[in-house]
Amino acid sequence: MAPQPHNLLQGLLNDALAETPSGRSIWVALSGGLDSCLLLALAAQVCEQAERPLRAIHVNHGLQAAASTFEAHCRGLCERANVPLTVAEVAVDTQGEGIEGAARNARYEAFFATLPAGDTLWLAQHQDDQAETFLLAALRGSGVRGLAGMPYRRDAHDITLLRPWLTVGRAALEKAAQSLDLCWCEDPTNRDISLDRNRLRHRVLPTLRERWPGADEALASSAQHASEADNLLSEYAQQELQALLTIDDQCVDNQYLNAAALSARSRPRQRLLVRTLCQQQGLPTPPQKRLESLLDQLTAKVDAKVCVEWQGAQARLWRQRLYLMAPLEPLPAWEANWDGQAPLETPIGPLGWQVSSLPASSQPSSQPLRVTWRQGGEVIQLLARGRRDVKRLLQEAEVPPWERERLVVIMQASACIGVIAPPGKLLWQAEGARFIRQTFPAVSKA
Ligand SMILES: Nc1ncnc2c1ncn2[C@@H]1O[C@H](COP(=O)(O)OP(=O)(O)OP(=O)(O)O)[C@@H](O)[C@H]1O
């Protein structure tokens, strides 16, 4: 007997089940289209057999007149399959990026906000989608990360995203859906060939398939190779970065890279390492031109002040160290009186410390404390080191110039009794003063 078209698909869902911890729910991302309706139907069978809890989520983007039809279809389908459905209504921000990208972002935010930690979301993307994603990335001139397309599995925001059918062609899904007499909604925007993906789907890929019948499989396979190469590069970059970050003994908290050691690497390695460090620090990676400009300046003179900026991040070179950071907002004028105890919020984060004792037994009530940005010219009396200019101390401690401008000093009359880098780093305290980490009063629930 010929195998049923959906047997292979069910087999893949059973493989996906093995990736999902028992006791946790599986969710189907249900758009109402053919692929995800089929996914729901077959997942319901597979999960029932395996006695695993199944749920579904539909995101209503509210973007088109048909949105309510999609939602109603998803509701009916889930009711018949006895699968609990969550509908998330999202507001899509259409300003700035393209509408498809904005809808996708809103959708993923809804997935992350809805699924409890530990659960798994199954998405119905398939081989043809992967081929399109690969081509779109290639047409944007992407590197291996972009060409890798969609991963089979991704762990993010405490949930797992899984695409069980990434190796199956759309034709096989259509056949299975027909054999099951399934109903689904056709998204009218899928026909709009002014959208890049639709143009590829309806115009470009059919032409490619005429000459290369296995085009989708080949393109998806290239994406798979790119994904493997990308994973290898990531592994290599982690090791290299670890080595570079530990060259300098003083480099605590992996704050900077040794620029001289970085510049001794080949250009492709430099690019990879800077991009990887950005990703590790949760910063956007620099566009090509900015990256080249930064790398050209790696060997700048020790006293040169180099700052290369791009959307959402900046790189600074100082004393042949490369620092990557979020852009620094200009500081507002600010100062505050303080009793030394209450949690104090500075414009750049919580102070994070409180005073447990003051020098020369003076009391805050008689000599109020004043907290300001460092103005320059402060002197602090240090235990066993005597009176020291804060400026000299900063130079000796090799605190970078942009951090020096963002320090807070605690003054009592004209005496500096503490220097703090918000949020929460105590640099120096005066002899006789004792700062302790801020403790917060217990909040009682009404
Ligand atoms: N509005 C939505 N709500 C929930 N999941 C969605 C939604 N839109 C897309 N998805 C999920 O993301 C996958 C890929 O989305 P894409 O836009 O390529 O598919 P589609 O053409 O809308 O629907 P389908 O893949 O079901 O035919 C879908 O298969 C589905 O699992």
Automatic annotation (TrEMBL):
Domains: entry comment: The N-terminal region contains the highly conserved SGGXDS motif, predicted to be a P-loop motif involved in ATP binding.
Positions the record marks as coiled coil are none
Q: From which organism does this entry originate?
A: Vreelandella glaciei
Q: Which Pfam families match?
A: ATP_bind_3 (PF01171), TilS (PF09179), TilS_C (PF11734)
- Give the protein's recorded name: tRNA(Ile)-lysidine synthase
Q: Does the keyword tRNA processing apply?
A: yes
Cell compartment(s), UniProt: Cytoplasm
Per the record, what are the reactions this protein catalyses? cytidine(34) in tRNA(Ile2) + L-lysine + ATP = lysidine(34) in tRNA(Ile2) + AMP + diphosphate + H(+)
Top enzyme category = ligase
